Structure prediction request, 331 residues.
Amino acid sequence: MHILVTNDDGPPSNQSSPYIHSFVKTLQSAGHTVSVVLPHQQRSWIGKAHFAAQVIKPTYFRPGTLHQDDGATHTKPLTAGDCSNDDKEEWVLVNSTPASAAQLGLFHFFQDRGPVDVVVSGPNYGRNTTSLFSLSSGTIGGAMEAAICRKRAIALSYAFFSRDHDPEIIAGASRMSVRLIEHLMSKWDEGVDLYSVNVPLVEGVEGKKVFYTYALQNYWKSGSSFTEVEAEDEDDPAKKEAEIREQEELGSEKAKGMGEGEGEGRGIEKKHARHKHRHFTWTPNFSDVYQSVEASEPGNDGWAVKEGLISVTPLKANFMHVPGLQGELKL
Prediction:
């Protein structure tokens, strides 16, 4: 098969994108033609966004040693027709989103390699289960973009339980993912636009059972997912992303209360609002997700991953309407 791979974590990095290189190499070892186009940096939680009016400027990544972070990015691609480059692998990086990467990979790159059979977005660094994760997922967004371009698509996510990236466990997850992708492609249900697959990063994952699941509907219940910070306290985005992943790992139950002094004087009516200048960082309370999973019945995607099982969620590329509400709405 010709498989187009994208993700939302960017090029290989032990800190922020630890699974993509192993997965691509495993696909290649299974005999597949693999074309890779990725965001040039971390784009998690961006959904199916495109950056309107932005000029997309590709760069070209040449992978290095597996798990060693020694790949190199170049401003120009390898020269076509130069036989000395025939054995050199090159991926495309774009200064945009997973959805844009999927479109560009389908229609503007790799045209000499034949039609793409399936787009795989991932493996994501972390699970994409339940509506709270899935609705914001750049990984699912990349697959969704391919699906609305009428291509088969699979969003692949690895649910980690430790950020100690054991190469053997990652390799097992990659092998299992390739087997599952091959199975889904051979028995694709024509009513499915894309599948969201979640593979737990655990020992013996290749022997774990695989279940069709539904996406658990859940909601934020802890109030704001943002924390106020002073302007000078802003952190580097990559550092903030690492902190968010650490919170996901620990299932933090940080309280989200009203800050001291907020709400005072609400009884005094003012003609115009006055604002305190503040900055905000995104600090979601992932315990809302885990508590909803604990309270749920078996059969959903969150339950499957919690039990150490592999979850396959068939999806349509749309926002489903609520049945029973139709016809003219009279005011």
Remarks:
- DSSP finds eight helices and twelve strands in the chain.
- The mean pLDDT is 91.
- The helical segments are 20-29, 98-107, 130-134, 138-148, 167-186, 237-250, 287-294, 301-306.
